[in-house]
Each structure stands twice: as structure tokens, then as C-alpha cells.
């Protein structure tokens, strides 16, 4: 039995403290236990992360109390937090905070209880007849409970039965009122009915066999499932998960967007409707109570199948068998605040720690994952054809430089206009994609060239027609739209590139009889809005769907035969080495929404850079060609996956402080780790000012993240910075902005 507990307190910056374990706790305390310990002149909570044989200091204080009889965090998650702190160059308590939801860490959080009315006895017929005359509400309550069984008192009150009537029934011994724990359930889309396994194609059989072979190994390697859109990757996921559950193991399924979670849950519920304990859901849009209940249900082993966004990779499942990472290439798996982890990579590490299989699925795998698969580090299996002999959609590229404006102006080309009209006549559905919300990207004065910019961020404000306002999509600042140039006073101020609002307005004028819906973060802000929209689209109540990347992936609607991509090259000019990869992936994913029924789909891509390789390879559905060319570019300039990279960002309210501190950081990194990494010169960030913070960056590339991290982490944690200066490290960044 251990005598010493090493505790990570909630209030210490990357430091642990040793405490004596009282004799009465020594046979109970375990790794991951939440404990209360003395700290300075007060007490605080912390986690047991180790049991050292020798204490780090003398005169140990004793552990005061255990939070519960069982550890709050499984020991493997404690080990995972330690790895994250080391790899992602962050304090250990930040890693632990990322693993454990606030609603679970909070010692005041508890399960929700309601008072239920239970029927104990029924009066005889004479008593019941008298009750109906003298106390009809009491009689109504008894009749209701006879039909429904136990009900919350609040439900009965809502039905018009007063609490006094229930209290009178309890005094007579006919009804009892009991506290009962109620699980707070996340919403479900309700779009998918119960389903049975489908007949596998030959390629699916090969893919499933490859995954099952790894699952049977004591040390399974991750497997990349590279399958074109509509090729049946989900069926492979379902079969592999079903095998893990049948062997008494647990499974985690990760999806890249919170908005995709409800429909993903229903897909799996349709297959595993009889699974004891049901399916648990974890993501950041749940209420604190929902997260609390779901987490504890998983920790107790009640639920063995967990679905969620990136934070679900930390689900405290017991006996983990498989982790599925759907659309593994998506940047949504990257956490933007400390700990800045990538859920896909954390899944691979957790799988290795717990000897669980990891299945990575994508039609357009990230170059890092593809490199790992081709080098033999990961397994690789492919689905090259759509199921049910469905053909890949035909993709046309419209050169907007040569386009003569038609009824849709500069927003909708003549070809796209005609194609939408044809779908409406046939009763088929259309998706129009533009990766920019708002009405216009900016307001520009044609007289002096002035662009209306955010006073808090170094970016143009976006014009929103609703409310005639300008909005910053970085900090949320809004202001009224000007009627004349703020710089020179000229009224010749015009809109920049179109956004979802302008596309919606244009389509409504072109096709006034069509049913139209817009999907972006402005219209989908209310809980349940996205689910309701999907339901309406699935049932054919919406003819045309206009939206951002919220509609670019994961949707399966057989009646969609046309996808239009407006301003396909929006992101190609960004100062980011991943820009081409992002555009290629997005085009392939959104094109995959077309032709998933019996009719071949059509995709029309509008572009001012039609010859760009990302667009041309997407037009031909040629992932291999794109990867070969892009990997050559990455290798030439020593970008990932050739080398690993870390982006250090320094921010301060003062531009001078930000620059000085960034140059100082550059010097510290060169001195500490220059031998194992190429340290770039400090420079302003592409978006130099954000939310009134001035931002400078230092970019580092290394062939050994382990060696570089060991040298760079002390610099971050121990260096002293001027007041008001913040420094952050982003390992394996997905954006350089």
C-alpha cells in the first residue's frame, strides 16, 4: 500500500506536491483519485497522479479527504494528460483540465433529481365514485398514474392537477412521493429509423477484415480507411464497433463538428438500439448538467458506446476496444486553446496506451495521415467505389473571369442558374455552398480605396444585410453600415465578395417559388435549429439549401442531385502552407453531397482561379494526383509531414511589447533548441491585431518533436515576460493565421 501521494493541485502552475496518505486511506486511494489537501493556509482539490517511493520534500502534510470511493479519472487518462503536457508544451494542470469537464471537476455538481408520484394503492369502486364527486382532481391523478405509471410531480401539475391533490392522496396512502434521479439527455435529430446491417461490397469486406485483423492483435496499429464519398465507410465503422461491443469492449466515435453529432448518434442508435445503457454523447454544446450525467454514465460503465466531437476522445470508458475518427482530416479536431491538442493524434496515442484499435476514415486524408499510412506506420485500406453502383458526380468548373453576367449577376453563373432551374422542374434538391457568411465580405470606397475595418482587429468588417450592420467575425464587434465613405465622405461605397446572405437573396429573386433555407452560424444559433433544418430538408420541404461548411460534410440526402460551389478559391490566397490542401478537401467533400441516390449528381464550381491544381485535381476526383504534387511542395520547403512544426504566438495590448517579447522569445529558443530545430525570425501574425491584442509569431520546424519539446518547454514555463504579455505554443498547428 502506498504511503505517499503525488498530487496535482487545481491552483499550482505545472507543479506537483507530495502528501502523506493517512492509514485509513491507504487501501482505498488510487491513481486518478480526486483528493482534498492542505495548501498554504487553506485547502484545495487536486488529483493523485503518482505514488512515489521517496517524497520530494520532508514533513509531509496528510491528504484531508477523498472526493469519492472510486477514482474520478481512469489511470490511463492520467498518463494521457502527462503525455499531452509534454508533447503540446503546456502545464500539466491545463492538460488535466482539458480531459475533465468543468461540470465533473466542480465538487458542487450533482445529478438532477425530481419528485415522482408513484401509485401505491387504488381505492375500491365505491371510494373512487365518491372521490370523483368530492375531489375530481384527486380522482384524475389516480386515473392518470394508473395509465402512465410513475410521473414527475411537475408533469402532473402541468396537466392541471394541483400539488394539494397529490399531498391529499399521499395522506390517504394511495400515492407516494419519491425523489428520483433523472438523466439529462442531449437532443437527438430523430432522422434515422432502426436499421439492419447492409450487404457489404467486396471492398468493404476487405476493409473490414483489415480492421478486424488489427483489433485481434495485442498491439494494434492505427488503420486509415481511405474511401471516396458515398463508399460506405460508416458501415465499416458500424461492423467494427459491433464486434468490439460483442466482445464486451467499449468504443468511441469522433465526428469533426458538433452540428454533426445528433445525426451521427441516430445513425448508431438505429444499429445499436438494443445496446444496454444506450449511447452516450459528449461535446461542448451540452449543458453542464448533460455533460455531468453523460460523463458519469460512461465512467460507471453503463454506456459502452460514446459519440462526440473532439473532447469525446477523453471519454472515461472502461475496457476500450476501438476509437473511430471520422473525417480525420478536418481542422475541427484541433483545440484552439490550451491544451492545443489534435483529437486524431490523441486518439492514436490513447489507442496505443490502452491496446485499442484506431480507425481513421476520410475521402481526403490529411497529408500527415497519408504519409504515416504509406510509410507503414499506419495500416491502409481503401474504398474506391460508391455503394449500390452509384457513380461519382460530374464536376464542371466555370471560369468566372470570362463569365458574362446573366440573371444571377456576379454571384450565380448562367450554367449554375440553368442547372438549379432544371432541378426544380424535376423535383430534385440543390445545395449551394459558399464558405463565407454575411452579405458581403467588406465595404470598399471606389473613390479613395478605403475599406471599413474592425477597430479591434486588423481585418475588414463583413456587411450583414439583416439590421444593416457591419460585423467582425473574429471578435464580434458590430457597428451600423455607413452610407458614405468614413475616410473621404464619398457615397460611392460598394460591396466586396458575396456571402451567404447575398447568395440567399439572389436565389430568392431568381427562383421566387422555391423553398429556400440558409445554414450558417447566424441562422443556426438557436438550439435545435440545425436539427430542424435537416429534418425539413430530408422530408423535401426545402428545395435549395445555401450554407457554409456546416453543410459540406456528413450529410446524406439521396434527392440532392446538384451542388454549386460559389467562390471556390476564397482560401487559396491565405498565407498558410495548408491552403491548397484545405480547398481540395472542401471541394471533394461538398461535391460528395451530390448524387447519393439513384441519379448521378452534378457539381458546378465557380472560380476565378480555375487552373489551380487544387481545383483541377478535385474536378477529376484525383486524390492521389493531388497528394503526389502537394507532398513534393511540402518536401521542397520542409513543411509537414517532412518536418514537424510549432507556432509560437506572443500577444500584448502594446504593439511594442508584443514585438519586443517575440524577438526575445526567438532568441531564447535559438539558444535553448537551435541545435535541433530551425527557428524562424519573429514576425507579425497574418492577422496582426485581434480583439485589441497585437500578435507576433515565431515559427519553428524540427525533425524531432521529442527533443525539441524537451528543450523548448522549460523556456515557455520558466521565462518571465513583461506584464500584460502572453505566450502560447501550438504544436502541429492547422492554421498559421
CATH superfamily of the largest domain: P-loop containing nucleotide triphosphate hydrolases
* Global mean pLDDT: 87
Q: Are there runs of 5+ residues with pLDDT below 50, and where?
A: none
Percent of residues in helices:
25-40%
Give the number of domains: 5
Give me the side-by-side strand order of the main sheet.
11-12-10-13-14-9-15
Briefly note the CATH topology name of the largest domain.
Rossmann fold
Output the structural class.
alpha/beta
Based on the coordinates given, report the CATH architecture of the largest domain. 3-Layer(aba) Sandwich
Tally of DSSP β-strands: 31
Question: Could you outline the blueprint of secondary structure elements for this entry?
Answer:
Elements: E1 4-9, E2 17-20, E3 34-39, E4 42-50, E5 65-66, H1 75-87, H2 92-99, H3 102-105, E6 112-119, H4 125-134, H5 136-148, E7 151-152, H6 153-158, H7 163-171, E8 175-182, H8 202-215, E9 223-227, H9 233-246, E10 250-254, H10 261-271, E11 279-282, H11 288-299, E12 305-308, E13 320-326, H12 343-354, E14 357-362, H13 367-374, E15 379-383, E16 394-399, H14 414-426, E17 429-433, E18 443-445, E19 462-464, E20 469-471, E21 478-480, E22 493-495, H15 500-510, E23 516-519, H16 529-538, E24 544-547, E25 560-565, H17 579-591, E26 602-607, H18 613-619, H19 623-636, E27 644-652, H20 655-673, E28 677-679, E29 683-690, E30 693-702, H21 705-718, E31 725-731
Helix pairs in contact: 1-2, 1-12, 4-5, 8-9, 17-18, 20-21
Amino acid at each position: 500500500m502506498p504511503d505517499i501521494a503525488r498530487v496535482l493541485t487545481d491552483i499550482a502552475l505545472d507543479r506537483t506536491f507530495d502528501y502523506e496518505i493517512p492509514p485509513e486511506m491507504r487501501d482505498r486511494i488510487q491513481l486518478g483519485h480526486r483528493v482534498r489537501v492542505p495548501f498554504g493556509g487553506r485547502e484545495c482539490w487536486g488529483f493523485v497522479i503518482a505514488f512515489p517511493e521517496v517524497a520530494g520534500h520532508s514533513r509531509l502534510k496528510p491528504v484531508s479527504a477523498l472526493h469519492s470511493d472510486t477514482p474520478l479519472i481512469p489511470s490511463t487518462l492520467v498518463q494521457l494528460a502527462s503525455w499531452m503536457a509534454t508533447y503540446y508544451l503546456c502545464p500539466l494542470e491545463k492538460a488535466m483540465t482539458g480531459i475533465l469537464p468543468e461540470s465533473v471537476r466542480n465538487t458542487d455538481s450533482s445529478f438532477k433529481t425530481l419528485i415522482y408520484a408513484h401509485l401505491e394503492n387504488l381505492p375500491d369502486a365505491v371510494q373512487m365514485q365518491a372521490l370523483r364527486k368530492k375531489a375530481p382532481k384527486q380522482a384524475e391523478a389516480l386515473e392518470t398514474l394508473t395509465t402512465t405509471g410513475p410521473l414527475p410531480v411537475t408533469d402532473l401539475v402541468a396537466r392541471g392537477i394541483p400539488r394539494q391533490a397529490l399531498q391529499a392522496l399521499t395522506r390517504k396512502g394511495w400515492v407516494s412521493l419519491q425523489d428520483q434521479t433523472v438523466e439529462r439527455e442531449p437532443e437527438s435529430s430523430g432522422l434515422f429509423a432502426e436499421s439492419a446491417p447492409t450487404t457489404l461490397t467486396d471492398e468493404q469486406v476487405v476493409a473490414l477484415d483489415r480492421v478486424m485483423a488489427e483489433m485481434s492483435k495485442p498491439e494494434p496499429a492505427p488503420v486509415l480507411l481511405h474511401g471516396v464519398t458515398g463508399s460506405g465507410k460508416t458501415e465499416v465503422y458500424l461492423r467494427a464497433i459491433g464486434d468490439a461491443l460483442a466482445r464486451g469492449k467499449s468504443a468511441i466515435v469522433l465526428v469533426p463538428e458538433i452540428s454533426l453529432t445528433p445525426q451521427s448518434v441516430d445513425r448508431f442508435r438505429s444499429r445499436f438500439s438494443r445496446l444496454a445503457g444506450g449511447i452516450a454523447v459528449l461535446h461542448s454544446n451540452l449543458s453542464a448538467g448533460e455533460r455531468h450525467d453523460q460523463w458519469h454514465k460512461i465512467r460507471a460503465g453503463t454506456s459502452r458506446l460514446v459519440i462526440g466531437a473532439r473532447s469525446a476522445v477523453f471519454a472515461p470508458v472502461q475496457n476500450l476496444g476501438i476509437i473511430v475518427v471520422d473525417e480525420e482530416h478536418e481542422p475541427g479536431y484541433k483545440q484552439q486553446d490550451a491544451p492545443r491538442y489534435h483529437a486524431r493524434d490523441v486518439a492514436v496515442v490513447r489507442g496505443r496506451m490502452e491496446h485499442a484499435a484506431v480507425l481513421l476514415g476520410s475521402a481526403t486524408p490529411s497529408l500527415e495521415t497519408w504519409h504515416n499510412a504509406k510509410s507503414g506506420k499506419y495500416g491502409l485500406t481503401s474504398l474506391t467505389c460508391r455503394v449500390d453502383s452509384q457513380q461519382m458526380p460530374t464536376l464542371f468548373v466555370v471560369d468566372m473571369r470570362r463569365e458574362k453576367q446573366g440573371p444571377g449577376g456576379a454571384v450565380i453563373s448562367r450554367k449554375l442558374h440553368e442547372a438549379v432551374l432544371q432541378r426544380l422542374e424535376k423535383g430534385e434538391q440543390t445545395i449551394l455552398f459558399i464558405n463565407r457568411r454575411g452579405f458581403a465580405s467588406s465595404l470598399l470606397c471606389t473613390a479613395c480605396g478605403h475599406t471599413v475595418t474592425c477597430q479591434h482587429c486588423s481585418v475588414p468588417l463583413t456587411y450583414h444585410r439583416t439590421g444593416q450592420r457591419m460585423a467582425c467575425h473574429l471578435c464580434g464587434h458590430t457597428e451600423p453600415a455607413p452610407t458614405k465613405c468614413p475616410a473621404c465622405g464619398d457615397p460611392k461605397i460598394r460591396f466586396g465578395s458575396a456571402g451567404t446572405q447575398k447568395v440567399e437573396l439572389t436565389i430568392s429573386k431568381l427562383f421566387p417559388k422555391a423553398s429556400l433555407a440558409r445554414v450558417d452560424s447566424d441562422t443556426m444559433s438557436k438550439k435545435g435549429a440545425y436539427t430542424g433544418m435537416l429534418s425539413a430538408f430530408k422530408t423535401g420541404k426545402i428545395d435549395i439549401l445555401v450554407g457554409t461548411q456546416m453543410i459540406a460534410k456528413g450529410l446524406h440526402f439521396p434527392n440532392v442531385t446538384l451542388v454549386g460551389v460559389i467562390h471556390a478559391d476564397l482560401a487559396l490566397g491565405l498565407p498558410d502552407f495548408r491552403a491548397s490542401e484545405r480547398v481540395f478537401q472542401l471541394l471533394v467533400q461538398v461535391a460528395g453531397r451530390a448524387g447519393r441516390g439513384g441519379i448521378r449528381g452534378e457539381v458546378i464550381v465557380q472560380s476565378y482561379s480555375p487552373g489551380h491544381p487544387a481545383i483541377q485535381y478535385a474536378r477529376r476526383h484525383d486524390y492521389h494526383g493531388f497528394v503526389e504534387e502537394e507532398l513534393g511542395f511540402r518536401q521542397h520547403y520542409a513543411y509537414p509531414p517532412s518536418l514537424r512544426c510549432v507556432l509560437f504566438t506572443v500577444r500584448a495590448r502594446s504593439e511594442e511589447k508584443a514585438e519586443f517579447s517575440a524577438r526575445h522569445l526567438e532568441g531564447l529558443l535559438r539558444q535553448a533548441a537551435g541545435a535541433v530545430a530551425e527557428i524562424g525570425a519573429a514576425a507579425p501574425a497574418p492577422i496582426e491585431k485581434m480583439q485589441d491584442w497585437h500578435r507576433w509569431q515565431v515559427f519553428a520546424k524540427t525533425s524531432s518533436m521529442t527533443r525539441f519539446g524537451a528543450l523548448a518547454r522549460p523556456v515557455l514555463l520558466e521565462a518571465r515576460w513583461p506584464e500584460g504579455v502572453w505566450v502560447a505554443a501550438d504544436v502541429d498547428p492547422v492554421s498559421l493565421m
